[in-house]
Amino acid sequence: MRYPEDQAYAYPQKQYGYDQGAYDYQGYNYDPYQPEGDGYYNGPPQYYYDSNYNPNYDPNYPPQGYPQEGYPQEGYPVDEFGQPIHYDQSNRTYSDSASNISSATKQKDPAKAEEKPSYAPEAIEKYRQKAKDSGDPATLFKFGNYLIEAAGATDEQDPKSAKKKKDALLQEAVKIIKRLATQGIGFGRPAYPDAQFYLANCYGNGSLGLPMDPDKAFNLYMQASKQNHATATYRTAVCYEYGAGTKRDPNRATQFYKKAAALGDTAAMYKLGIIMLRGLLNQNPNPRDAVIWLKRAAANADEENPHALHELGLLHAKPEKEPPEIPSLIRSEKHAIEEFKKAADLGYAPSCFKLGCFYEYGQLGCPVDPRQSIRYYSRAAEKGHSEAELALSGWYLTGSNGILNQSDTEAYLWARKAADKGLAKAEYAIGYFTEVGIGVKADIEEARRWYMRAAAQGNKRAMQRLKELNFGHAGRAKPAKHTRAQANKEDCTIS
């Protein structure tokens, strides 16, 4: 079932002290990465300290919900009407061992990968009649979703005719979904929870022509939760946590996170682990139970849910005597690297960045390996991770013999990507590049502007350089060939 690309309701903009950043992902400007630290350019980061860690951790995760019926990706088997046959979330397993990663929801049938449903009028009518005759809410719901897809795939050449056809299909779809969400099919039958969840998302982001209505969205999430819809239960918890459509209530939020986790929602497992680990939402810290839930979430890890693996990696990497003390958790560099690599294999950018650091500086039992460092930084940078972009800039600035050709232009461009995202260290780096003329024409006034941007975020070296430029205490910086040995020096851009 393809839920609307929901701008993910129940994720409010900055409020209650959570700095969610400016990264716009699936709604409400939610940033799936926590704010980066400002330690990397001052030398190798401590391997056991998460540069993305925030003591007030924004647990508003994930950026979008998880379909109760699985993940409708290309390649799933289709039925006689060309609709995906989904795997139920209950097929996903978890254990207390983070090494058991289930792939039940990720199987694909290559032979079916190219098949697409038909949206021809006769196909729509055939499906419509079949759905009506079935009297089955699941079939009717699938038909409603099919109509929404058909509305987006209209091939009418005339704009007016295309709009008329699209509107008609959407109106029929909304009518079906509203009916399923508010009344059962047959005497004494309850409303269909998947339809309630879907309609709640629509009210949350104003899709399908419906007005944004947080109150209606919350009520529908709650109704679906009463029927043990795992993802709706998770959304109900988020609503209580942030006061979206209801009064803010941390205790009720925790109750619903626990229920959603018990129902098998991976995001809720991770969230509950973080709540218990850090004592959020008025809860007393409980590291032992936190690790249990994190391991369960890690056992269900996939590309949408790699976060628990990363968190376990951080816990494994902490020194023995550093809190929190968790007797059931082994403090081991080997275990930490294993968890980070699992998350990195799923494409999780913060884990890729961590591994890039480890292989650059020889931390956490990893050898100094420029090839591996560049590889992991590149993977994180491709996903827009600003610190990785800046680290990759550093590698281009120096080059690596036989692995990466030195390029001032690439060094500038990668640093600029990070600076454009507001990373203070990168803004300082661009100021330096622009002042000296590395990868760009030297321009002292433009450099000054970049230093001012970095200084506004508290970057001390930018402040110092501005003072020197303003009072003439230092001459213009001169370009020089940079080496990796300089990377840790205080006056080096990539330190």
Automatic annotation (TrEMBL):
The keyword Repeat applies. Residues 475-484 have a biased composition (Basic residues). Residues 20-31, 44-59, 66-76 have a biased composition (Low complexity). This is HCP-like protein. Gene3D superfamilies: Tetratricopeptide repeat domain (1.25.40.10). Coiled coil: none annotated. SMART domains: SEL1. It comes from the Eukaryota. Residues 88-105 have a biased composition (Polar residues). Keywords: Repeat. The keyword Acyltransferase does not apply. Residues 20-121, 473-495 are annotated as: Disordered.
